[in-house]
Amino acid sequence: MRTADPRIVLGLHRSRHERRLLTGALDLGVTELDTSSNYLNFLSHETLRRTAADLLPRFTVSTKVGYFPRPDRAEHSLDPLRLRTAVEQTARDLGREPDLVFLHNPEHSVQGPISQGRDALAQACTALDDATTRGMCGAWGVASWDPAPLAGLINGITPRPSVLMVRAGLLVGTRTLVAAEALSAAWSLAESALRGMSPFGGSTNVPVWDRVDPRFFLRDGDGLSRMQAVFRAAYHLPPVRAVAVGTDDPAHLRELVGALAHEVDEWAIREYRRLLRSRPPGQPA
Question: How many domains does the chain have?
Fold first, then answer.
């Protein structure tokens, strides 16, 4: 279960996209950046080009497509033409081709008959696979907040992504953990192709960590904060090679980098997974 060379990806969800954050990340050796076409009210790519065009070549940049602006709200679509156009627009807005483009939350548009969802997913993945072949991006992947609807839609004609990004961490329920691992298995992805996100469950102020010490999950947690322990454990729930985490504070990012040197207690993680699986049906997971 040991995760080799765990990496941090600086996520820009809810970020102010300040230049000082990017320079701080580079100073810490964090050279992977993750954003999305719909972040910062659909202005993330243009803002990065305007404020940090000289820094972007020093990062491996991943982004996402799948959400599109409307006057009243954002809408989700797996239409292949719209996805290809979005990848093209991403390169123009960033001023460079992205290294990795994720299909963003495809589960939002695969409801209905399973055959219809299977075809929609296959066509969307084919669009991104084709964009990669044409040199519009370096590689493509799938980022899924809720992978449960997706694993049953994979068949022999669904292109395989290079990376799968899913929620990771101690607050991820067993349903999502099992679904993420099933989706990874359906695509025959190696652990090195998995990336985690939202390791704190959306907030570092979750009350549970005032009652339970997450340093229990580390073999050498002395001297670490509780949030450092939460972050380090996220690399094993499910096992992922890298975790995308958002912050606007370089000092917070420095703390997370420091957590990577510590080892997770694999027995504790296995016991935690066993306890999650044993929860009575119907309880929140």
Answer: 1
